[in-house]
């Protein structure tokens, strides 16, 4: 029986980062094209993507292009042309949100449903599968039972993808409109202003302060390291790392971390296999704690938990390093928690003020004064560091030694190859067969001269044949099918080996097959609902036609069309502020004297002049952040009307 393939899917801000993601073990890489990606500042030209494709395909790794914004009518034709260019550049699949694209003349490129499609139910996943999407990126908020239920509803060939690491958007993806309502910058069009990372006063209906200057919509970062096997058993086959804005060091480190974890799982369980070729070795030990993070959570995978928020700060608090022992006029002395810990010029330190605000301290110069003792000279004047005193606990959130290590070559990826040298009538033939079963043979004429020292000649011959150091291959075995040991000059053997490697690379390129485009079912599958509100993000007439074809009777335009001018849900989220502040009625059940007195009444979030209302849907265990479109933003839009009567 064929093994189930597990795919490690890494992000790339640009082609160079994508190439290193492949080198560090990614089975697939997702990257933004020239435009229409949900990370507007991470665009790449077609030539760079083609360069990444060529490198990835050497290892049978795949490249996915993100075209996952909602599109206006006048953007559909440029998007169609871009998709053809991406296809011609060798891209393997498109990650999309806008169903209007399915109504266009597209190349036979595989289509994946973006997490922006808000896929939380078996019915929605099955519909997208039946509409012709081959890979489904599930909502981050699902638990294992919900994932398993979706898996059971789909055909075996449909791949489920899940985010396993990186920043968490507090809203269900595709269901956040705060940025657009307040600034005109739409998260659904790749330009989120990140209102979720701001500090808010939380007040009740009477105006009493429930929480002061807390980042109550800011989540910790996702880390599913401990849950990979459970996710595999629930049906996940593609493991996605968030981070198309992240730097090279992050992608190298986090890709290597999950490569090791998945390889360990595959080694234990032979029913699973890697979905690309080669074996990766690392010059460092991966450690997710070394990269920017807001501390970690596994979110809702194992059920609702109270500590998923990064309420004190959306910044990176780093790892504990020591405490302050003395303060001078221009320096701070520290004692490290571990005597082996070393501080470096350029390190970033931080600490919490008495108000629980994170304050940063960049080291200009670090001097060791004894075992585990350091004097550091900050870049900024010492007077500028609020509440820094003897005994203050200090963390490190930037380790320059670690960053410098990752600036160097830090991984090698090699494909196993078996070499066999045989005699021909007028010379020799070298056959290379790789771990994927691809084979290439080259022949060359050469005289046969008996070797004077048979053992030495054979050892030298094996040594020259096995010199694959600058290629993507590593020799697993060298077979010599010779009547007797012959003397062969190094120049001849080296040329024969180089020609054989080139022939094998060509054969591998010819053998590479892009994943096929799935065909939609006929007649068209019915959409699970017969009416769509602005939450469906329908922003062009082709998308409207798509849903009408699939049985939807009433279709409202996307929020970005400014039809919704009154109070509306600007964010829908599974995160609950009441629950995180221990104010949830369900938490109060069974608590003597409290049950019945705690109700899910609305709360307000206040940041400066901005005010948002929190309403709680306890039946669904969801929170709605309510607000209005600002008048200045409302004037800038072009309304769309798809329905006959107002829904």
Automatic annotation (TrEMBL):
Peptidase U32 collagenase domain span: 394-508
Pfam families per record: DUF3656, Peptidase_U32
PANTHER family in the cross-refs: 23S RRNA 5-HYDROXYCYTIDINE C2501 SYNTHASE (PTHR30217:SF10), PEPTIDASE U32 FAMILY (PTHR30217)
Protein name: U32 family peptidase
Organism phylogeny: Bacteria, Pseudomonadati, Pseudomonadota, Betaproteobacteria, Nitrosomonadales
